[in-house]
Amino acid sequence: MSDEQLISAWSQFRAALSANAPVSDGCIAAPSGDAAITRELSLIQDEVVQTWFSLHDGAGFNFDGGMILPGNFALSQQRAIEETRMIQEIWAESEPGQTENTSGDPHIAGKAVGTWLPEYVLIGTDTTGGGYFLDLRPGPLHGCIKTWDKVNSDTGAVEAPSLAALITALAHSVATGDSFKYWKPTMTNGWLEWEIDAAFD
Description:
Elements: H1 4-20, H2 22-27, H3 36-40, H4 47-55, E1 73-74, H5 77-90, E2 120-122, E3 124-125, E4 131-135, E5 144-148, E6 158-160, H6 163-176, E7 183-188, E8 191-196
Helix pairs in contact: 1-6
């Protein structure tokens, strides 16, 4: 099975990029064709993860417009595997609830627990030890997007209730110039860049 909403959202996003930031659109790599991530990370065959990496294989690490996600480079499948494993190893000795400002149940998607869980998959990197991750725990927010921080762990707010919702919102931003949360898209010479909206400074 595949996530049809995510496929539709990605199509909208690529259309918006093609029309407004074609150079950035051209940075997006074709999918590898091997759904290795669920096998490598011992994940249940989750349709969101499988669909996401069936659509692309990252967009490289060009700081001049290659950051197609707000503040994040979209990871290739192999980089997602490697960086997810790295964070999991670093936080292996930190049990849920040991970090301040956590909110409880480690079994419900969206809840901050203060560590990296096996149900987390990094899909974007800010290159400083943080980035967007998918929360694959069960519950109404299964598949939501949160921001990982190398110091504050998973204690940030839910960025989007699903990956499809995130990509739909980004497609709208690129097409209209409207901000996504505090990120404003700017297009220069075919490149997409996300800048902090001055209204939030």
